[in-house]
Amino acid sequence: MIKQNVARILSELPDGVQLVAAVKARRPEEILEVVESGVKILGENYVQEAEGIYEVIGNKAKWHFIGHLQKNKVKKAVKLFDMIETVDSLELAREIDKRCAQIGKVMPVLVEINSGREEQKSGVFPEKTEQLVRDISGLNNLRVTGLMTMGPRFGNPEDSRPYFVETKKIFERIKKLNLPNIQMRYLSMGMTNSYKIALDEGANMVRIGSKIFGERDYGATVKAPSR
Length: 227
Ligand SMILES: *Cc1c(COP(=O)(O)O)cnc(C)c1O
Fold this sequence. Notes:
By secondary structure, the chain is of the alpha/beta class. The protein has a single domain, classed as TIM Barrel (Alpha-Beta Barrel), CATH 3.20.20.10. The chain is built from 9 helices and 8 strands. Strands 7-6-5-4-3-2-1-8 form an 8-stranded parallel β-sheet. Strand 1, helix 2 (28-36) and strand 2 form a beta-alpha-beta unit. The longest helix has 17 residues, at 161-177. The structure holds pyridoxal-5'-phosphate.
């Protein structure tokens, strides 16, 4: 099942689009199957969960952090992950910078935009994005390589379109500024129900869970994510 799902998604994605398999609450055997089916990037929401899976998968895939990163988890996160897609404050960026400096690493990050301006959600508001990117550009041990957004959840994926359009506009605007230390390469948007719309609107990185693994079952091991 997983093999066919991955094959179909990969064959349908346009050239130059990267697939991130969202692995939260999945079993290591399932995740291994995904990697063996050709997925090169795994997206994980929880540092602790990643530690367990890492023992099984190790460096067979790249690891992207896609959850809400708490400051007290940064030290572990910078060791495990190859990219952090969810930087949304200068405070968090500074902590990543500090912990990366300690281990001699430069971390590629995406700035997460709260494109729906939803109070309870993480992400920087659209109008604050450019300033945050400018502030981060002064830090030596992380490198902004693009933007990420979730957008509000809708039953009808078409309703997501305006949020993806706005995020793409911000992406292009910041790209044109040619800021030092900033490489606007990746635009991470779209999940199982919305990734086709996101691709229409310029995403070149999509994060897909359910369409690969089937519906999530938050049984025994992992608590449901708060978003
Ligand atoms: C869970 C998750 C996804 C994937 O969601 P699906 O609807 O299962 O495809 C993508 N991005 C983030 C940040 C997630 O937490």
